[in-house]
Amino acid sequence: VQLQASGGGLVQAGGSLRLSCAASGRTLSFYHMGWFRQVPGKEREFVAAIDRSGDSTYYTDSVKGRFTISRDNAENTVYLQMNSLQPEDTAVYYCAAERGLITRAIYAYDYWGQGTLVTVSS
Questions:
Q1: Which of 26, 36, 59, 93 lies 20 to 30 Å (CA to CA) from residue 44?
Q2: Is the separation of the CB atoms in 84 and 63 below 8 Å?
Q3: Which burial class, exposed, middle or buried, applies to 111 when counting CB atoms under 10 A from its CB (0-12, 13-18, 19+)?
């Protein structure tokens, strides 16, 4: 499966963005999906994950209550709605697909998109 992330940009603190991850090559419903982010010089970190059906979601503590992961399997797309953005959310955001058990572990994800940059100004 090929993944294409989009929707990043520059936003002021307190603002919102919605990231999209469009899949091609195979239907997205085969995969659990995750969003990760990376700041230059730091390790890539887990942000959120959603299971194949969309019934279960998981978040890192720092984004709980602000970010929402969702999916539309008919559209082969996963979303990350980001509200109340803070400067510390500035990073390149990546979507990823995983065929096994849903997990926060980066190493478990099989396919990655190219990343989209989110910049939050104070």
A1: 26
A2: no
A3: middle
Let me know how long the chain is.
122
Contact 22, 76 (CB under 8 A): yes
Assigned token pair, 59: 């978040």
pLDDT in tens, 66-81: 999 999 999 999 999 9
Tens digits of per-residue pLDDT, 93-109? 999 999 988 889 999 99
Query: How many other C-beta atoms can be found within 10 angstroms of the C-beta atom of residue 55?
Result: 7
Cite the DSSP H helix spans in the chain. none
- The gap from C-alpha 57 to its chain's centroid, in whole angstroms, comes to 12
User: Could you give the C-alpha distances from 64 to 3, 15, 26, 51, 81, in angstroms and in order?
Assistant: 25, 16, 30, 17, 12
Task: Report DSSP state, residue 9.
Answer: E
Report how far apart, in Å, the C-alpha atoms of 97 and of each of 49, 56, 90 are: 10, 15, 22
